[in-house]
């Protein structure tokens, strides 16, 4: 899958904010954190909608990493 450079740049910006939850992200988008820079217009308030084909989860959006498991679970005795 080709990764959109726009989401890479957006995630880089968001990671620098050091937000830890989706709720903090929404508060940031509403301008409730005076100590943080204003959200650029190029970064969406709802990244899951804007980047729906590249979206992984909120952990990936806020931290740039994720523990989301892709694929099938193996049977216990096979693990």
The chain-level mean pLDDT equals 87
Shape: elongated
In angstroms, what is the radius of gyration? 15 Å
Number of distinct beta strands:
0
Order of helices and strands: HHHH
Indicate the percent of residues in helices: 25-40%
Beta-strand proportion: under 5%
Mind summarizing the main beta sheet? none
Sheet/helix structural class: mainly alpha
Number of helices: 4
| pLDDT < 50 runs, ≥5 residues | none
What does this structure look like?
The chain is mostly helical. The protein is 38% helix and 0% strand. The chain contains 4 helices and no strands. The chain has helices at residues 5-16, 22-29, 47-50, 58-63. The longest helix has 12 residues, at 5-16. The radius of gyration is 15 Å and the shape is elongated. The two termini are 28 Å apart. The mean pLDDT is 87.
Break the fold down into its secondary structure elements and pairings.
Blueprint: H1 5-16, H2 22-29, H3 47-50, H4 58-63
Put the structure in a nutshell.
With 79 residues, this protein is an all-alpha fold. The protein contains four helices and no strands.
Q: Key terms for this structure?
A:
79 residues; mainly alpha; 0% strand; elongated
């Amino acid at each position: 899958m080709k990764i959109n450079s726009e989401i890479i740049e957006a995630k880089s910006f968001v990671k620098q904010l050091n937000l830890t939850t989706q709720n903090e992200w929404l508060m940031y988008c509403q301008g409730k954190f005076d100590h943080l820079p204003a959200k650029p217009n190029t970064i969406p308030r709802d990244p899951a909608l804007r980047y729906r084909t590249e979206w992984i989860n909120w952990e990936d959006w806020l931290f740039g990493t994720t523990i989301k498991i892709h694929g099938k679970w193996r049977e216990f005795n096979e693990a």
